[in-house]
Amino acid sequence: MTTSRLILAALVSLASAPAAAIVGGGAPQADGVARSVVTIVGSRGNFCTGALIAPQVVLTAAHCVQPGADYKIVDYGADRQPKLQDVRTVAIHPGFRMQAILNHVATADVALLQLAAPAAGKAPAALGMPDIPIQVGGRFTIAGVGVAVRGDGKSGGTIRVAGLIATGKPGTLQIRLVDPVGQGTRDGLGACTGDSGAPAFEDKQSGPAIVGVVSWSTGPNGTAGCGGITGVTPLTLYRDWVMQTARQWGARF
């Protein structure tokens, strides 16, 4: 099967009526922070979330765009029919380690995609860093295209948002977010399959800014799945690399 057919096959699993949530009841959204969010599909059949930080630059998670596959951005037009946009270059942070992600351990899970043309109908989001020190209970917003029902690929593909709070011992290497109601002990709001690479926003004086990237999730009480903890890689240590790489590609901020 050709690369294009493999990527189109990945889109089939996303073609469905909108479902209810990121997981746990997050609302579908097209405006606000959602205007920067894009869907990334790969020739291995995977899909992830990314966020536009310049007209032709997308921020996502490194584990989403590993070497050995081709990647495209999906544009859903007014007719809701998916159209593929070419990715020209992929840059993965040199400090990224895949084994760390598999173990839910902090690593430089950050990557950039250079698009062949500006993403249609999208608006770049501001890039920032979390307020330091990051406080337990600090509020963040994630926006992703992942599944609303674990194991049901057809429930993905719609941009949804969720307001989460920091728990545990948040720091410059990792932030763990939970639903403010369930606190990670029962099913609640959180990232799921396809939300990897999703932007985590924090409100600043000038408005929402991307301060991290979704890297992993668990079910309630640390079980396998979704709706418990959402693991975020903050940009505190990686924003300079992101900005320098994007500027090398001609991006202006």
UniProtKB/TrEMBL annotation:
Superkingdom, natural source: Bacteria
Peptidase S1 domain: residues covered: 22-247
Keyword Signal applies: yes
InterPro entries reported for this sequence: Peptidase_S1, Peptidase_S1_PA, Peptidase_S1_PA_chymotrypsin, Peptidase_S1A, Trypsin_dom, TRYPSIN_HIS
Keyword rRNA-binding: no
Signal peptide: 1-21
A Pfam short name: Trypsin
Record keywords, A-Z: Disulfide bond, Signal
Similarity comment: Belongs to the peptidase S1 family.
Protein name: Trypsin-like serine protease
